[in-house]
Amino acid sequence: MDLQTTWVALSLAFALGARHGLDPDHLIAIDNLTRYNASRRPLLARWCGFFFAMGHGMVVACAALLFSRLGETTALPYWLECLGAYFTIGVLLALGLANLYSALNARPGDIHRHIGLRASIFSNLLRVSNPWLISGVGAGFAISFDTMSQAGLLGLVAAQGAGWGLALAAALTFTIGMMTPDTFNGLIMGQVLVNPSNGSVKARRIISIIISLLSLGGAAYQLANWLAPSAFKLSNTTELGMSILLVMATFACYMTLHLSRRARQ
């Protein structure tokens, strides 16, 4: 494979990664992971998007290498596809419920603390305050037909050219592309939720409730799409539009709180 074709393949991999990073379930999960860690580990909260995308990308890289060696795509076993779907649904549901409970019951001035969760089931289910665990959540989200299809495409393109070396380069480029929107989204949401001077407690409570409801809505959509894909599957254009709106809404929240803080000074 000549140099020009290689650059085209890597550019395609980056574009696919950036598009994949804008999937609504990615953004919703990252927002909720950021929300969950806002008071526990503020620095980590800002980088939840990065670690989520890193774990997701590692699965893509391994799958692309496998497909490049096999020279063909292999469908996921049905049980594994079920496991990946229910993992995604379970994480979105659990994070949404935990964050909603916290937002509705937190004391004034302590909007991020999960009151009473140490004694509840969510305390054991949602201890995702470790970079490796957040990467593990991202890896779990990668066990899906769509993700494996993209990994297979990267692997097969590489298999027709320079072999596993190009497959690895394409997979890493895909991961970098995916990290770009996911990291940006996490940094902006972290800035909104971590900094206590950003807006009033009421405003941050409203944002937290919206994030939680998006997570619950995402879980409901994933479940409906899994049970009846022909009835609930959205087009790629619609999903991309939703993702762009989510990123724009995140940035709008940051700007609104930032401007309101400056107006009070």
TrEMBL record:
The chain crosses the membrane at residues 43-66, 78-104, 125-145, 151-174, 206-228, 240-259. Its main location: membrane. It is a multi-pass membrane protein. Coiled coil: none annotated. It comes from the Bacteria. It is found in: Cell membrane; Endomembrane system. GO terms for molecular function: nickel cation transmembrane transporter activity. It holds the Pfam family NicO. Keywords: Membrane, Nickel, Transmembrane, Transmembrane helix, Transport. GO terms for cellular component: endomembrane system; plasma membrane. Belongs to the NiCoT transporter (TC 2.A.52) family. This is Nickel/cobalt efflux system.
